[in-house]
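in:
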């Protein structure tokens, strides 16, 4: 096998090891519904195998379906998450056998495939990138399920660099064009394509994500009680939900605590806030006299290199993420302290844009000019519109394989169980704040 194939094989093995670790639990725990927002974990497990069967074995490999009768059960569009516990799911044992059988044949396809053929499904290993990223995304979803379940011991709490938030509050991005999206990154999803020029007026963007200390100041200033800071839909959500703090926070004995994977601890004030919905992020920004960055503003501040006039794959350049540059890949079960990654700064000086927490942007999830669905409409296209807000940057629970400057994630503006925070921006021209 050549180098590229060996790298693909290693990535397939690494992601599967993680999926199996996150589903190493008793059968009743894996088949239970821990939250109506999430699938039973055993659904995610078999679904990643079924996805591999559909795309690598059948579509790319031309292999006869192994278990066509289960396609329907693992089709995310046929059954909303809340209904999945009542489906005739494979048992955990059957699911493990099924996905490992699929995986064996995936390696056969990898062995025989020509990665330089013009077929866009296999060229540069696209279809393998598709299933690797897909499984990583489901692993992050599984962690959100475990967090909602309050389960301890699922994920190790490794060491992260220390940091200090000291430094400028905002960085300046001068007016000008940049290239948004990509036409060249081989594993980029359809929604990141094609590269296109976007001209932005000058703006300021927070150097760091909003931290728990700043967010608590918003809470203590009565932010949750003041409709001035909220959009009408946001205020409606605030009243309906009764929310008064980020999800998983509670106050006791004059101290704010949070539960994180079954463990209760004082809220660490120097960490980026996480588990806030879009409405909370938007209200905070208005209270702070700012606004959320648009997706284009976020991407330019993250990846544009104005001196070289080109987009970087990551804020610091094109080299792969390292533990000194970003908190990615489940190294610890939390975001790192603010200021922990000066080595990960972007050309404009923005920090922690990649890793730690997904960041809400002001933008709806819409197609770029020239978008073409590939390889299927249900990955991105059916979600376009004014229903989902774009999230950028990846969290501590995202894997480097599925994070880059151009990577787009999206969710409903009410969602808080995901590992999500935000940073603020403001227009440099006071006329158009
Ligand atoms: C991009 C995270 C919104 O989880 O619904 C997983 C990713 N797509 N399986 C999701 C995805 C198909 C997707 N998000
Ligand atoms: Fe999926």
């Amino acid at each position: 096998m050549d180098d590229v194939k060996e790298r693909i094989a290693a990535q397939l093995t690494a992601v599967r090891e993680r999926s199996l670790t996150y589903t190493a639990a008793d059968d009743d725990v894996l088949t239970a519904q821990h939250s109506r927002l999430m699938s039973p974990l055993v659904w995610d497990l078999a679904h990643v195998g079924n996805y591999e069967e559909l795309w690598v074995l059948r579509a790319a490999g031309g292999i006869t379906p192994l278990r066509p009768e289960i396609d329907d059960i693992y089709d995310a569009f046929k059954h909303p998450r809340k209904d999945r516990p009542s489906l005739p799911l494979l048992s955990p044992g059957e699911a493990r056998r099924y996905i490992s059988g699929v995986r064996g044949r995936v390696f056969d396809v990898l062995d025989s495939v020509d990665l330089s053929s013009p077929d866009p499904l296999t060229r540069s290993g696209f279809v393998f990138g598709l299933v690797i990223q897909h499984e990583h995304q489901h692993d992050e979803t599984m962690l959100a399920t475990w967090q909602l379940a309050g389960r301890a011991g699922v994920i190790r709490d490794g060491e992260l660099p220390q940091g200090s938030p000291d430094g400028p509050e905002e960085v300046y991005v001068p007016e000008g064009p940049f290239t948004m999206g990509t036409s060249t990154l081989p594993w980029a999803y359809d929604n990141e394509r094609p590269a296109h020029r976007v001209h932005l007026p000058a703006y300021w963007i927070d150097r760091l994500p909003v931290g728990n200390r700043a967010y608590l100041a918003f809470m203590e200033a009565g932010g949750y009680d003041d409709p001035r800071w909220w959009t009408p839909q946001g205020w409606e959500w605030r009243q309906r939900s009764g929310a008064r703090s980020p999800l998983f926070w509670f106050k006791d004995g004059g101290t704010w605590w949070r539960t994180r994977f079954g463990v209760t601890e004082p809220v660490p004030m120097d960490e980026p806030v996480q588990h806030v919905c879009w409405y909370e992020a938007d209200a905070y920004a208005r209270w702070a006299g700012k606004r959320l960055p648009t997706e284009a503003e976020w991407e330019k501040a993250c990846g544009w290199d104005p001196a070289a006039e080109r987009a970087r794959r990551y804020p610091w350049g094109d080299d792969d993420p390292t533990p000194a540059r970003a908190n990615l890949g489940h190294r610890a079960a939390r975001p790192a302290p603010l200021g922990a990654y000066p080595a990960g700064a972007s050309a404009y000086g923005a920090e922690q844009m990649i890793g730690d927490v997904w960041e809400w942007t002001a933008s709806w999830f819409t197609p770029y000019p020239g978008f073409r669905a590939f390889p299927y409409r249900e990955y991105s296209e059916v979600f376009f519109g004014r229903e989902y807000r774009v999230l950028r940057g990846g969290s501590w629970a995202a894997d480097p394989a599925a994070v880059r400057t151009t990577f787009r994630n999206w969710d409903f503006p009410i969602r808080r169980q995901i590992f999500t925070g935000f940073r603020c921006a403001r227009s440099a021209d006071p006329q158009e704040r």
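note: Residues 76, 134, 137, 141, 379, 409-410 surround N,N,N-trimethyl-histidine (ligand 1) (CB under 6 Å).
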